[in-house]
């Protein structure tokens, strides 16, 4: 018998905040004898990337990982979804408004620039601009650049005809803006500097260098550059005439963009945080950050929960998420998707770039790449003698790595995601597309559980198999001996909202490969289940009551 979680003794933890990114009309139910709790609050955004202030003085926020654009009222904190996940705009990274009120967005992963009209209809302006990112509109003209090695800075005719290239072969330009002098200013992350160019022709000119990986340029009312530094977390005010700079604020690495509402300055972070820069180093949080997904979960030897969240790898201490690695860390493992603890301060991880690596914490963190070149790695597990199994979603395989050798122990699988070691030296894997969990042993593949929808993370404890099914929005337990199954919780905030078909996220080279979701599951030494609630961006626990 299931209990509805309107009972506050069952559904505990931080409450859903206004404008949370996920909502559902389906009641959340928990089986008798079990308790569901939320450990971390849900994220209100899917990260925060490009920012642009609209004519209504709201901040429009592009969210690459969520394929969403939201409008934030900085006075009330309320959010409105303008372009939702599953809509026409995919992975928006930056945005601008033209004089007619059309919202124009760069779609980084799909090489597109799309125009969203005030009536909500959308048209693709160009679909052949790999790494389309920085965008601005000036005196009736639209300009876009490509954030990639060898990227171009172009003027795009509004009728969709052939772009005019202003500058070519740029090492990762990003969010740009026109200065009061009529010149176009653009940051170049690959060389840590800011440049300017006359939009009507001429040679580019370097404005300032030796920065902290600048990824945005805007101008304040006095004509000074304001630039976020993704690598250092600094917000800089730069004199475009002399290159002199001043630090307005020091925040965490991972800043993405900035915008002004009147004279108030706001910056975005990959975590989804929006911060106001007040001056003299002071800041004020406007919108709290949170998890972008989360993906895989594992307990470290220190007894703490570690969370793979793609751009960041976190540890949960005293209810607070603390980053231990990110795309910007020294000796970073990269975009972490699968993770399992294998020793004190040591983790085996799979990355979206197709690498398997050991990541070791410490004063000087270290990443040791074990293997690379795989196609969309997800769940990963290891034995005490360093026998590694990993799911390779793109190739439909489960790989076994041991003693410097790699072999496919199963092929032709339909969307393998989660892996775990089962009884009698078997390997279990969830086939997300086939809707089942299978057992691999001695070259044979046998069905363990079928009639699932979209199984993701799996966990084996004794003779029990726990499955997170994002299609059923449930956690299911199966007795591996009797095959009896039971739904422990349903209506969970995993997967995508009802009726939404999420479009593939193709990746952001060189930072990551395809960015697919993965709702992981793990257990504490005491047997409490921990779940990745990837739809709302939180961590849940499911615990059997005494």
TrEMBL record:
This is Gluconolaconase. Residues 47-269 form the SMP-30/Gluconolactonase/LRE-like region domain. Signal peptide: none annotated. It comes from the Bacteria.
């Amino acid at each position: 018998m299931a209990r509805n979680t309107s009972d506050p003794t069952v559904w505990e933890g931080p409450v859903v905040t206004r404008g949370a990114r996920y909502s559902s009309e389906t009641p959340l139910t928990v089986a008798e004898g079990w308790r569901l709790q939320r450990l971390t609050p849900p994220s209100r955004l899917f990260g925060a990337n490009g920012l642009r202030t609209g004519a209504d003085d709201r901040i429009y926020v592009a969210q690459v990982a969520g394929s969403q654009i939201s409008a934030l009222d900085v006075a009330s904190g309320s959010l409105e979804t303008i372009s939702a996940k599953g809509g026409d705009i995919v992975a928006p990274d930056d945005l601008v408004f033209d004089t007619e009120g059309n919202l124009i967005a760069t779609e980084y992963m799909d090489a597109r620039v799309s125009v969203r009209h005030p009536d909500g209809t959308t048209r693709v302006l160009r679909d052949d601009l790999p790494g389309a990112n920085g965008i601005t509109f000036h005196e009736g003209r639209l300009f876009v650049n490509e954030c990639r090695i060898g990227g171009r800075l172009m003027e795009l005719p509004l009728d969709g005809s052939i772009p005019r290239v202003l500058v070519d072969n740029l090492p990762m330009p990003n969010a740009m803006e026109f200065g009061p002098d009529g010149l176009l200013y653009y940051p170049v992350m690959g060389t840590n500097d800011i440049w300017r160019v006359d939009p009507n022709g001429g040679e580019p000119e370097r404005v300032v260098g030796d920065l902290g990986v600048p990824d945005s340029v805007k101008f304040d009312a006095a004509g000074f550059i304001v630039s976020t530094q993704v690598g250092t977390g600094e917000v800089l005010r730069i004199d475009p005439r002399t290159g002199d700079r001043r630090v307005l604020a020091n925040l965490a690495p991972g800043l993405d963009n900035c915008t002004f509402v009147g004279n108030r300055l706001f910056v975005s972070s990959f975590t989804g945080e929006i911060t106001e820069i007040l001056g003299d180093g002071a800041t004020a949080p406007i919108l709290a950050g949170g998890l972008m997904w989360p993906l895989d979960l594992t307990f470290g030897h220190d007894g703490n929960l570690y969370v793979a969240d793609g751009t960041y790898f976190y540890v949960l201490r005293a209810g607070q998420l603390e980053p231990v690695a990110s795309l910007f860390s020294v000796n970073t493992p990269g975009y972490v998707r699968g993770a399992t603890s294998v020793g004190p301060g040591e983790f085996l991880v799979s990355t979206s770039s197709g690498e398997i690596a050991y990541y070791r914490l410490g004063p000087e963190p270290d990443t040791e790449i074990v293997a690379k070149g795989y196609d969309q790695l997800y769940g990963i597990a290891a034995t005490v003698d360093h026998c590694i199994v990993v799911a390779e979603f793109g190739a439909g395989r489960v790989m076994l790595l041991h003693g410097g050798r790699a072999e496919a122990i199963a092929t032709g699988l339909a969307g393998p995601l989660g892996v775990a070691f089962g009884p009698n030296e078997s390997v279990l894997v969830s086939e997300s597309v086939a809707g089942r969990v299978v057992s691999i042993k001695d070259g044979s593949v046998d069905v363990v559980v079928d009639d699932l929808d979209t199984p993701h993370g799996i966990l084996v404890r004794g003779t029990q198999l726990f499955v997170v099914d994002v299609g059923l929005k449930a956690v299911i337990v199966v007795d591996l001996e009797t095959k009896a199954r039971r739904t422990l919780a349903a209506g969970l905030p995993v997967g995508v909202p009802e009726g939404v078909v999420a479009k593939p996220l193709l990746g952001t080279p060189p930072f990551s490969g395809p960015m697919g979701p993965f709702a992981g599951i793990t257990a504490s030494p005491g047997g409490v289940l921990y779940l990745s609630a990837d739809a709302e961006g939180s961590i849940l626990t499911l615990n059997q009551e005494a």
